[in-house]
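Ticket #384: bound-state structure for zinc ion.
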Amino acid sequence: MNTRDILRDLISFPTVSRNPNRDLIDYCAALLNQAGAEISIVEDKKEEKANLYATIGPRDRPGVLLSGHTDVVPIDGQDWTVPAFEMTEQNGKLYGRGTTDMKGFVASALHAACRASAMELATPLHLAFSYDEEIGCVGVRSLIDVLAKAPFRPLFCIVGEPTSLAVATGHKGKTACHVSCKGHEAHSSVAPDALNAIHLACDMISFIRNLQDEVCENHSHDQAYDIPYTTLHVGNIQGGVALNIVPGQAGFDFEIRNLPEDNPDQLLARIAGKADELLANVKPRFPDAAINMAVTNRYPALSTPEDESVVSFVKSLRGTNDTIKVAFGTEGGLFSSELAIPTVVCGPGSMEQGHKPDEFITLDQLEMCDEMLETLLGRLQTGL
Ligand SMILES: [Zn+2]
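RESOLUTION: The complex was predicted; output attached.
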């Protein structure tokens, strides 16, 4: 089977993050079994979703890891002109949900694993396929726990998220946080006797907006990013029942997308400090007032130094001298910071097409990815 055939099969599994991915993982395991791979499957608690880790070649030494996620974003509310969970080929493009983000890379990696089964590898090839990446790099964490206890870890990791096959050495980290504000409810005609929870939430939000200005002015800048500084943003707000009731509850969600140079915990501490200050003012009159902050999801930034050998290694596979940094997050930050595996992001397709209706990858990109991985297999045969 070539990469295109494998991709067609992968697209037919509707592995939107809320759905199980087990059938897709079983499909990959069957292919890899035929290729003589050593396979471990790390299931979630409900046994509906799983990560897969496979090794082709020698088992007694570390190799090169190809990492990809198997879940895709939903198609709800999107206007598709081709079937989303069927691969359609038109004018040198392959359409379908996940073609670019990132089943194209997963298909190419599986194809490389099948090719490797007929070779004598001196350095092994590892594959890591995860679930629940699209909801904040959630699924891969159990696989990382398993790898942390393994006798050795991969030498290098290539995360195949779509970079049009450019070599990306960095991305921002992300911290998502929910804030709930408790005030004191009353009839709106006596509003000054009550504590308006929406007003509390707005004071917090104003602080976050001012903090963004401060970060933009005074914190690190990295011009390799489109937005060259750490960003803060409120994406959701809830509160209030009716206009004639002073609301007792309000809440909002915000996120920090940090440059590796900025510590998100320091920003969270500043925001928590503002909550303390607001509460100190109102507590004497409203002892039940509260502002609670809870981190709901986070993953670290990726910041691989340009002189790390993984960078020159993947540059040489691609025949390029350039590197980039990407706006989106990946599992690479976790592989790098939790397991100390030198990591870059390099995969086929462009994120311009990711998450959109009529998502596609060009056949050119898929072929170039196959070529990169064929070059990798050559290196693994000689040994690293
Ligand atoms: Zn992705």
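RESOLUTION NOTES: The first helix runs from residue 3 to 11.
TICKET STATUS: resolved
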